[in-house]
Write a structure and sequence with these properties.
single chain; about 240 residues; Porin; eight-stranded antiparallel β-barrel; 3 helices
């Protein structure tokens, strides 16, 4: 997916005509496919992204960004805070033999995650080229995530979940909301006066479930889709 972003950017630049854009509409509306990658948890999610912007100047827009993605991964003991790692290791050592667990048994739990992001702020645009608009912006906002934990074996279901879930989280579908920060940018390929193709890249840092997980994470979001530009021409 990362390669798609760079290919689109290169194609856009190669198609540029070195002339100012004649029309910049007051409003921009983007909607498209979104891919969110959190390597720390080996979590890849796919979903939807929309952006609504108002061009206050030809070079400055103010807008709102929303996205939602879903995906699956596995939580391992090493992802948790040290005190919870110790508790899990104790359960494996104490009750594992009764379940016939091998000496090299690795405790893990599959989970599904639904992640939503909410962002508002400025965007700086460079419109020197007629066929492509380049832009950059800060990425500061809120992230909300819901996790659905599952058990994959009898030991996890009968020992680990009853013993630790009430301590770790309130239910098997915990949720958390916190802030994130980072930066983003991309390009609009101006197919027509009112319809563009956008490739948007975001890099953010976030610490969800900080009471449970040992580390924060860095996430990358890539979004691709059409942008609709309309309204009164912004001349300055």
């Amino acid at each position: 997916m990362k390669n798609v972003f760079f290919v689109l950017l290169l194609l856009s630049l190669s198609a540029c005509a070195f002339a100012q854009q004649d029309y910049v509409g007051r409003y921009d509306v983007f909607t498209g496919f979104s891919y969110l990658d959190s390597p720390k948890l080996d979590l890849q999610q796919r979903g939807f992204n929309t952006q609504i912007g108002v061009n206050a100047r030809r070079w400055l827009a103010l807008g709102f960004d929303y996205s939602i993605q879903e995906g699956h991964a596995s939580l391992v003991t090493a992802d948790l805070k040290p005190q919870y790692q110790a508790d899990l290791n104790y359960l494996v050592a104490t009750y594992g033999p009764a379940f016939g667990l091998p000496s090299n048994y690795v405790l893990w739990a599959p989970f599904s995650a639904t992640t939503q992001t909410f962002t508002a702020g400025p965007q700086l645009s460079y419109r020197h080229f007629q066929k492509v608009t380049l832009f950059i912006h800060p990425s500061i906002g809120a992230m909300h995530e819901v996790i659905d934990l599952h058990s994959h074996d009898l030991f996890t279901k009968m020992v680990v979940i009853p013993a630790l879930v009430p301590t770790l989280v309130s239910s098997l579908t915990p949720s958390d909301t916190t802030y994130f920060y980072g930066f983003g940018g991309g390009a609009d390929f101006n197919a027509t006066k009112h319809v563009h193709l956008r490739a948007d890249f975001e890099f953010v840092h976030v610490y969800l479930f900080s009471g449970i997980l040992k580390d924060s994470r860095n996430s990358v979001r890539l979004s691709v889709g059409p942008t609709f530009n309309f309204g009164k021409n912004v001349t300055r």
